[in-house]
Amino acid sequence: MFQGASAINLDAKGRMSIPAKHRDALAVQCEGRLTLTKHPHGCLLFFPRPVWEAHRQEIAAWPMAAKAWQRIFLGNACDVEMDSAGRVLISPELRSAVGLTRDVMLLGMGTHFEIWDAAKLNENEQAAVANGMPDVLSNFSF
Questions:
Q1: I need a surface site. Which of 51, 54, 65, 124 has the fewest CB within 10 A?
Q2: What is the pLDDT averaged over residues 62-81?
Q3: CB crowding 50-79: b at 16 or more within 10 Å, else e
């Protein structure tokens, strides 16, 4: 299970260093083979390849009415591999699609990660708090 937030700087080539706390787990779980794709909320989804392959099969089986959503998820999917320094290259197309520049946040979301432009994530979180908790969480407490 991946969790936690990591502030990361993309280098000039668009490479992102995977934090050490996740690097070893990814090396074991998927031998550094990963998949990136676009999410309509304005971030990238970042999957260990075996996790992505299960999602890919499910998405490919969606009905014709969901073709536009297939294009978002499958049409933008990009297989990547960690290099010997624990970095992955995020394609210019995916960086541009979600507005990634230099300062990004990597969020562990259980079985996968989200990659956000740091400023955009902050705006989204502030808006979520301002809108209040959704009804579905009304009985949730720590």
A1: 65
A2: 96
A3: ebbeebbeebeeeeeeeeeeeebbeebbbe
